[in-house]
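Usage example:
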Amino acid sequence: MSTVQVDTPGGSYPIHIAAGRLDSLAQSIPADATAIALVTNPTVYGHYGERATKALAQTGKRVLRIELPDGEAHKDWPTLNLVFDALLQNRLDRKAVIVALGGGVVGDMGGFAAACYMRGIRFVQVPTTLLAQVDSSVGGKTGINHPLGKNMIGAFYQPISVEIDTDVLATLPAREIAAGLAEVIKYGLIIDAEFFAWCEQHVEALRALDPQAITYAIQRSCELKAYVVSQDERESGLRAILNFGHTFGHAIEAGLGYGQWLHGEAVGCGMVQAAELSALTLGLPPASVARVRALTAAIGCPIQPPDLGTPRWIELMQVDKKTEGGQLRFVLLPEIGQARFEAAPLEALRRVLDQAAVAQV
Amino acid sequence: MSTVQVDTPGGSYPIHIAAGRLDSLAQSIPADATAIALVTNPTVYGHYGERATKALAQTGKRVLRIELPDGEAHKDWPTLNLVFDALLQNRLDRKAVIVALGGGVVGDMGGFAAACYMRGIRFVQVPTTLLAQVDSSVGGKTGINHPLGKNMIGAFYQPISVEIDTDVLATLPAREIAAGLAEVIKYGLIIDAEFFAWCEQHVEALRALDPQAITYAIQRSCELKAYVVSQDERESGLRAILNFGHTFGHAIEAGLGYGQWLHGEAVGCGMVQAAELSALTLGLPPASVARVRALTAAIGCPIQPPDLGTPRWIELMQVDKKTEGGQLRFVLLPEIGQARFEAAPLEALRRVLDQAAVAQV
Ligand SMILES: NC(=O)c1ccc[n+]([C@@H]2O[C@H](COP(=O)([O-])OP(=O)(O)OC[C@H]3O[C@@H](n4cnc5c(N)ncnc54)[C@H](O)[C@@H]3O)[C@@H](O)[C@H]2O)c1
Ligand SMILES: NC(=O)c1ccc[n+]([C@@H]2O[C@H](COP(=O)([O-])OP(=O)(O)OC[C@H]3O[C@@H](n4cnc5c(N)ncnc54)[C@H](O)[C@@H]3O)[C@@H](O)[C@H]2O)c1
Ligand SMILES: [Zn+2]
Ligand SMILES: [Zn+2]
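Running the assembly step on the lines above writes:
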């Protein structure tokens, strides 16, 4: 088993990564827990619910199952309220523990429910998608969507541990794997050029979920994210670099309508665009842009942005929460393995966006 | 102006107390704030909205007015969502500041909205009821109600400052003053016998809102609450003593239906019951119980508990979140000025509750 330690002002906790970790979930439950609420969805429960329940039951504690409807469309208040309803109807108290078993949607909602229930109870992340394992379960961002914006309502709230079972990736659709790998290579791009090169060399093994390769990729991703988050839990500075590719990516998601492209797919494509913008503004070498494009394609993500039209692109990027006081800022790369968060000249941005439209024709 | 400093792991901030403080609100807004959202209700806005807006406008920043319907019945998710709607429709960013102008309802909701909006923006408490000035605005508890329980959804989230204008109490109904004074004498009972005696001596001045007396009472209450909260921000130990009288009080509020008695009235009566229970379990002298009863009556709170019937009382107290693992625990006084949080024998509790029913007949 690999362990990555996360240290933030809001809490310190381990990430355990191992094949078969699901069967050891009892180890993550504190002795004084009065009950366990397993927050999940029917898809994930169908695959892994019984195993997780059996493992948690080894604690001798009551395990309450709370199934939320599957999908980003349900990452909203009414669905979150189902968790509160169940917790209150079953009289779970402040010493109960939430276990969030699922992808990023379940993790974000389970974590936010834990943050708010009785002003905060403990929770364990058990991420079951690659994206959740390398990204959303680490760092304490939790929340739900609002009709006027994604992830607009939430909390910084750290779990007491993250339990990653690499075996569960076997049932994940290939597109979800590609989407998760986009976040993996993102870490290399913003902070670890060596890891990016390692990903280039192991891309086939990663796509095939080779146990050794995927375990290392998850571990290294968690280490890098944990490092960034420990420097800046509340995203006042450094943490913003984790949003590399995301301002473009969010515009794609919103512009096409959520659910058309997976988040990771949009981020993959967005990273290519951000690399192009980096070339224009910070002099990222064309060969590096080509490497970003090639690896993004190799992991199975689209690299051709949708033709939303430049004005709409800009409008969509302006509602993204990374605009402060109205100015458009991006995470940009002076070279692979280094990132800066700064305002980009509108002219350069237009060139990247216009290019996209041209390429499509 | 008096200043009380609050230091918690979640943040350090000043409480400013002064007649006319409303006109100096601009001082509480950080220079880098991008906008100000004034969260209030029509009643409070009618009295003080223009003055507050004018004061805030001195910053030169945009002031967005968000009026929530008045009353505890609206301390719920749909109403909280009105805040998110307004913040998003007006594109307020992460550097916006919420100013909560009103009683405990507005303060709890404005604070919780600040805690959740984009995972946390800054907020200023401007409490306008006595209860809010001496209690709810200090300590960082924020939240809303759920149909199955009061304050069940919320966050510990500290304001950047609390601005108390003692003048605004002039428009508060007498019942609200009595309710606020219940929380004032609570601090004396649990932690400062001398302050309790001071309240006995100044009860008429307090009820008449004598400026010197009320300012001192607010300041001392804030100091005492700040002391407790600084020891235990997240209510894992000491902070529980602030709930003296509240387990009974919450049962009264829930048993009669919320809104029949004011929270502070129910707490006042509940403190008398808790004193009686303290006499039976910890040997609080009968003379001390008599002092609690006399001062509670003198501030204008009811001292005769409603006859809910003992089984219903117990049932209501069991859903209170101070039950952990099912056992009923109370804040009890071995003597005036000292408090302990401990389980009470059911038999003693029954005697207190049966007594109440008898007295009523
Ligand atoms: N908190 C953060 O820091 C953070 C970071 C990135 C993304 N996110 C959020 O994460 C969400 C996206 O997460 P996601 O990509 O995991 O999507 P998801 O949670 O919707 O999961 C994708 C699909 O895979 C299914 N699934 C999950 N595990 C499976 C398994 N092992 N086998 C088969 N199917 C499985 C899910 O039921 C779902 O249908 C978004 O809401 C995004 O905002 C949060
Ligand atoms: N956060 C905490 O630590 C904490 C502590 C105690 C109570 N509370 C919460 O506080 C709430 C009760 O607060 P409250 O007693 O202030 O009730 P409230 O906020 O409902 O105010 C009482 C009434 O007085 C009106 N009002 C407010 N200021 C006024 C003024 N200056 N002049 C005239 N009218 C005015 C209000 O509009 C309302 O109608 C409850 O929801 C309770 O749960 C929170
Ligand atoms: Zn992402
Ligand atoms: Zn109270």
